[in-house]
Amino acid sequence: MKKQKSSKLNLKVKILSGSWKGRNISFLDKSDLRPTKNIIKETLFNWIQEDIQGSICIDMFAGSGSLGFEAASRGAKKVYMIDNNSEITNHLRLQKDYIGAKNISIINLSAFDFLKNLKDLVNVVFLDPPFSLGIIEKAIKELSSSDNLADKCKIYVEMPYKKNYEFQINTPINWELLKSKKSGEVAYLLFQHNISVI
Question: Which residues contact 154 (CB under 8 A, 6 or more apart)?
Fold first, then answer.
């Protein structure tokens, strides 16, 4: 087997809980590929622990796969892991096979094109695009216009920290901010999509 020259494979993220607790998933050494820190991931999944079991989730900008694999490990019925970089999705498939995950679908497509063709109602969305792309607002707009968010769907947003970060992004009137915190230079927020507010 030829060694991959373009990317290192010795970078790891750990699954914190669930079926594959303690297993390490490797990810590619690529610019803008920034796994969610364990301290943030643990807080996030404490927030949404009642929502994950039996849920349908989308990891819209999968990257390392840290959030998607964690959700799958904790009992999500289906996790769609989306990335438009074929090298990343190929590597995610290797990791999926490595842990034997049957509840993960890895799709090489732009997140926005994926949303247009999605048929399922979604319970949890992870929205953590590369910070340098500056597309948080575009992703929120696309999500908010989708018919695929179930009532009480939880939307996790990770973004660069700025003072008063809760007010730095525009969200729909029916997205209720449930939680928000910061860790270093990262802010992270949890919203709930409420159909009854529309």
Answer: 47, 48, 51, 123, 124, 125, 178, 190, 191, 192, 193
* Ordered domains of the chain (ranges, CATH): 11-197 (3.40.50.150)
Q: Answer whether residue 37 shows pLDDT above 80.
A: yes
Q: What is the pLDDT of residue 7?
A: 44
Question: Phi and psi for 126 in degrees, rounded to 5?
Answer: -105, 120
| C-alpha span between 92 and 82 (Å, rounded) | 10
**What tokens appear for 186 in the block?**
């990262």
Query: Averaged over 177-181, what is the pLDDT?
Result: 94
Compute the average pLDDT of residues 151-160: 92
